[in-house]
Amino acid sequence: MTRDPRIEDLIARMTVEEKVGQLGVFADAVRPFAPDINPEVNARGANEVLDQIRAGLVGALFNGVGALEGREAQRVAVEESRLGIPLILGADVIHGMRTVFPIPLGEAASFEPDLAERTARVTAVEATAAGIHWTYAPAVDIARDQRWGRGAEGAGEDVVLGSAFAAARVRGFQGSDLTSNDSLLSTPKHFAAYGAVAGGMEYNTVDISEQTLRDVHLPPFKAAFDAGALTVMSAFNDINGVPASANRELMTDILRGEWAFKGFVVSDYTADFELIAHGYAADERDAARLSFIAGVDMSMQSGLYAAHLPDLLEKGEVSMEMLDESVRRVLSVKSAIGLFDNPYRSLDPAREADDSLRQAHSELARDAARRSIVMLKNDGVLPLRKTGQRIALIGPFAEDQDNLEGCWTLFGDKTRHVDIATGLRAAAPDIVVVPGSGIEEPIEGGIDAAVAAAKNADVVLLAVGEPQVYSGEAQSRTQIIVPPAQQALVEAVAATGTPYVILLKNGRALALTGAVRAANAILVTWFLGSQTGPGIADVVFGDYNPAGRLPISFPQDAGQQPFFYNHLRTGRPELADQPPAFKSRWREITHEALYPFGHGLSYTTFGYSAPRLSTASLGWDDTLTISTTVTNTGTVAGEEVVQLYVHDRVASRVRPVKELKAFRKIHLAPGESQEVSFELTRHDVAFTLRDGTFAAEPGTFHVWVAGSSAQGEAADFTLLA
After folding, report:
1. I need a surface site. Which of 287, 308, 370, 629 has the fewest CB within 10 A?
2. Please, what are the domains in the chain?
3. pTM beyond 0.70, yes or no
């Protein structure tokens, strides 16, 4: 690869301390905005940080905001440091900046990667206006255990869906020109297999086969890199006993060797320091050595590189060549996003003050909110009427303003947020609102007031579920259920006999029980962001026909976790035409989801023809076309997510019962039909073999085209050698 002469000249002139300085990212004390996030890092004052920048000892700052103050920090770096190397300013901007969009898991329910690209683009526009160059997103972890809290940050349990959204979010954040003022450098995370922590417990160990790592957890990262991502964040967890942030096989052999990744690796927050607690490093010096030689280029906040790399270099434990290569990677990324040619890009106070795009961004937030909602069930109670129907809105989230955004939002403009009650009242002003209970505790007289409101209503909307603090980092749950106080509220309302609809607030799949499960209708409303109320109102009143589909499986019981639709076959599967004794199931329940991956209802219905195959015998280098005719068999227009699933019947490794291979969302008027076609080649059915190679095997395959992972009529084809 041709090296940039400007960067090579800088490296040649840099001292060891200046080189190491480029490999550290520290809390932005110049413009601290989120003192509650890692509060200990704000102890250093702005003047101390500016002095370190002036001395060339800081390469990047994170979680500060403000174009004016950011411009001053950059001025010190460019005009007062010896070599004038610009800073890169990063932040946790996950699913929105001032305008907050649905949590990524909720947005994945749209099955519209284009939607994620558009919301990421708006996020980039707003973040870069506030003086941020670099975001620590998207999270691309595949989450198969709903007890894990950080599943809310990703795209669910499926690798094809997850890869599509990973690539879309990278494209959205970065735009078409990395040097543009509104391009936000992306960082897919957490590399890797963070979503596979044992028991769904945060930061836990990962014991995983090489095949599962490569077939399930790595592909979304590769998709993100193929979409142009130039940085990646290492994970906290270990993989088979080797911490990811000291895993040379992962960060050097695979990332840079097999994939030829040219960007840089940044550690998660103090992940290098945590090698000591893992029992993998003897002390801080050893932790710095292990992380660096494994391939972590930039250390976040720990200060271990600054404290120990010079001595490690002097003692010959790391080489100058290795140090220069890490510095080269960091400087090359800074160059790629235009910081050397325009160090003050994205640091324009006038642009930050410009609010002309606010309305357009709010309209997108509303559209994203309603497109993310999944209707699990509906006996006909929905949609509601705006007039002539007495509606009670009951629940702790009815007028709640503190649980609209979801996890990992630092910079949202709360003055623009619209709660559920406000959104519904804009359409139906006479709605009666009663909290009924607290989120975790009952309130005095709450249930009595709720029961009275329900008895006087024609229909009840129950806004219940998880608060946002139940999701995100360090928020694993043993019981993925509606909190007991809210469950009691729902039971009491249900006992009145008034029809009721659950508006479920959640950052994961929940195990629904009792009256929550038995509701007349259930809408999964996630954490929908700034336009929560209007988005829900659009669906509840039928102004938007719900078209979301589950990116995760809702279990029958919390004890089923980990649960995912594409599990491997067993030797004793439970089959409908056989007795259940001595089969792969639980004593109490079947090995099935309550609501499967891909499920979601509409205010209309859709019919599918049997799948049609262009050939029953697919040649090794040929392409198979699978087609079906989808018809809107209802009375209103709607959108359907057409899903293609495949099963490899006999293979050298046991294969999943079904695997999503493609999907497409279509819009159909009442009575309208459309032919939907997908193409398959042998590459689409390849997997990691026992010897580590990635290849397809000849044989017979089932294929389904359906509206969920639990539906469809199978057809067969044979892949020829």
Report:
1. 629
2. 5-351 (3.20.20.300), 374-547 (3.40.50.1700), 596-719 (2.60.40.10)
3. yes
